Every structure is written in structure tokens, then in C-alpha cells.
Task: structure prediction
Amino acid sequence: MPILITERNDGVTSMNKVSASILSANWLRLGEELRRAEEAGCDCIHVDVTDGHFVSNLTMGMDITRAVCKATSLRVDAHLMISEPGRFIPAFADAGADSITFHAEATAHPFELIKEIKKREKLAGVALDPATPVEAIEHYLDQLDLVLLVSVCVGFGGQKFIGAVDEKIRRLAKMRRDRNLNFEIQVDGGINTENGSQKRALGVDNLVGGSMIFLAEDMKETVRKLKA
Ligand code: DX5
Ligand code: ZN
Result:
């Protein structure tokens, strides 16, 4: 059965989760990197999937996702930065991802995709590029388990947080509160120990980080600060 993502008392309180984006991991030692993330207290492993079309980068696909799912007991989130995401939902479900997140900009049929994800008993997520307003997904917010706000130029690690995304977090958290919904809010890109707590205060439950986690001198301490 799908994992219950959020159990807030008041619809606002953050769950203080941290996701490790393996885009910045040492891929030659991926097993060790996953263990390091687990031991450091990360809650989820975040797999950035790109196709060289929806975004210009080429990263990971379903085979790596499958290997990651086998190697970790943490929740595995597949962030699909690909065109025609519907074509690949069965493959990522079969690979063992716990959640599948497609980009709102990549489909005209979000209701259908959400149904396909849920049919496979996976958590359904939608991601938004920095320039896409949260209002674009208001008509299917109630169907979602998670919303991922990308806060950098999509597809690449190590960039600076785009400040305009703060207002999107605020608006999304308000929509959740006003409609008494329970989806998880994730923010992805440019998160670090300096800005993490401010994003939590705006309403983020799950901070996704690549470089800040895998390139940290002390991963455990970094995760501790991000969860504080
Ligand atoms: C960006 C990716 C992120 C990326 C974030 O489009 O979706 O998951 O790994 O990397 P950092 O934390 O380095 O900005
Ligand atoms: Zn991502």
C-alpha cells in the first residue's frame, strides 16, 4: 500500500524531511553513498531522471532506479524531468520507486497520469519549473500526494536558489491550508544549511538537496541542521 506521506496536526506543521538527490553522489560508489545518506538521517532518496529533451541534461533512468530501490530501505522518489512521462510510469513503478513525480509542463493529461501512478499503488507527485505558477495545478491538487517546486534551472545540480520560488511555496502552503489538503511540499534546488530553515518556515515539508548533502564535509551534521 502507498506510504502515508504527511500526518500534520494543523495542516501546516512541517514534517522536516530531507531527501538526498543522488545527482551529486559519487556514482562509482553509489551503494556506499546510499548507506552514507541513510546513516546521516536522510528520509528519502531522490532520483533525477532526465531525457536530454524536456531538459538538456542526460542523467539516470529506470535501471539505476531499480538498483537504488534494491539497495536502500528509504523511500525512493523518482523525479521525472522527461517529455511524455506517461510512457514511463509503468517502468518506474516496476523499478520499485515509491513515488513518481512528473512535470506539469510535460503533459496535457495530468488526471490520467495520476490515475496510472495510483493504480500501481505509488505516491503521485507533480513538479513545477520555477516559472510555472502553482495555480497551474490547482484543479488536481486534491489528487496529489506530493508537489515538488523546482527552485533552480531544471535538470542540473549546484545552482543558486531562485528567490521567486519563495512566493510559490507561500501560495501553495496557503492553498493546502485553505482546502484542508494533505500533500507533501518539496523544494528542490539550491537548498543549503543557510536557507533551509527559512523554506521550512514558509511551509516546505521535504528539502531536496544534492550538492549540499553529498559534497558536505560532514553529511550527518548537514542533515541535522536541515532537519532542525
Ligand atoms: C535539479 C534537480 C535537483 C538537483 C538539486 O533540477 O532536480 O534534484 O539534484 O541539486 P542541488 O541541491 O545541488 O541544487
Ligand atoms: Zn530533482
About this structure: The chain has eight helices and eight strands. The pocket of zinc ion (ligand 2) is lined by residues 21, 46, 48, 79, 188, 208 (CB under 6 Å).
